[in-house]
């Protein structure tokens, strides 16, 4: 299964999602991330957080949804802006869900408060990815409506 995590800038939340998914997913499954308006640079705090968790980001970069190396079967938006955008037509009738998470890169405050925001975003995204990987996917893939409902419920899980 190929999963695309979308966020407008593709620098923080979608990067975290891509890296965590690829770290936890079974062989043959792959996540990529992209943005509708990529910043062209990955967030340094997100990279440091992932490194501290032992999660590789080697080869990852901020990219446009126009330059995907594969066609996803599932698109997960992780920011409200991306959720409201229309996916490119070439993605076809892809299954979509929204797992919105506040952007920790926009938090103002002490270093501790900013770090806590990144930890919270990571924990929430990881909990949702773990819930996704625990679904009875063989069963759900045959029932698009049930699969969509299960994915949408996951979007309400908080860490």
UniProtKB/TrEMBL annotation:
<dbReference type="InterPro" id="IPR023485">
    <property type="entry name" value="Ptyr_pPase"/>
</dbReference>
<protein>
    <submittedName>
        <fullName>Arsenate reductase ArsC</fullName>
    </submittedName>
</protein>
<feature type="domain" description="Phosphotyrosine protein phosphatase I">
    <location>
        <begin position="1"/>
        <end position="135"/>
    </location>
</feature>
<keyword id="KW-0059">Arsenical resistance</keyword>
<dbReference type="Pfam" id="PF01451">
    <property type="entry name" value="LMWPc"/>
</dbReference>
<dbReference type="InterPro" id="IPR036196">
    <property type="entry name" value="Ptyr_pPase_sf"/>
</dbReference>
């Amino acid at each position: 299964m190929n999963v695309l995590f979308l966020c407008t800038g593709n620098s923080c939340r979608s990067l975290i999602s891509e890296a965590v998914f690829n770290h936890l997913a079974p062989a043959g499954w792959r996540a990529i991330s992209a943005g509708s308006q990529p910043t062209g640079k990955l967030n340094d705090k997100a990279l440091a957080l992932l490194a501290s968790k032992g999660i590789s980001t080697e080869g990852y970069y901020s990219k446009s949804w126009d330059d995907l190396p594969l066609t996803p079967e599932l698109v997960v938006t992780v920011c409200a802006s991306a959720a409201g955008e229309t996916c490119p037509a070439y993605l076809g009738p892809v299954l979509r869900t929204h797992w919105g998470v506040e952007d920790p890169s926009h938090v103002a405050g002490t270093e501790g408060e900013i770090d806590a925001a990144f930890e919270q975003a990571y924990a929430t995204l990881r909990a949702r990815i773990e819930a996704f990987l625990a679904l009875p996917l063989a069963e759900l893939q045959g029932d698009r409506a049930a699969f969509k409902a299960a994915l949408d419920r996951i979007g309400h899980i908080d860490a």
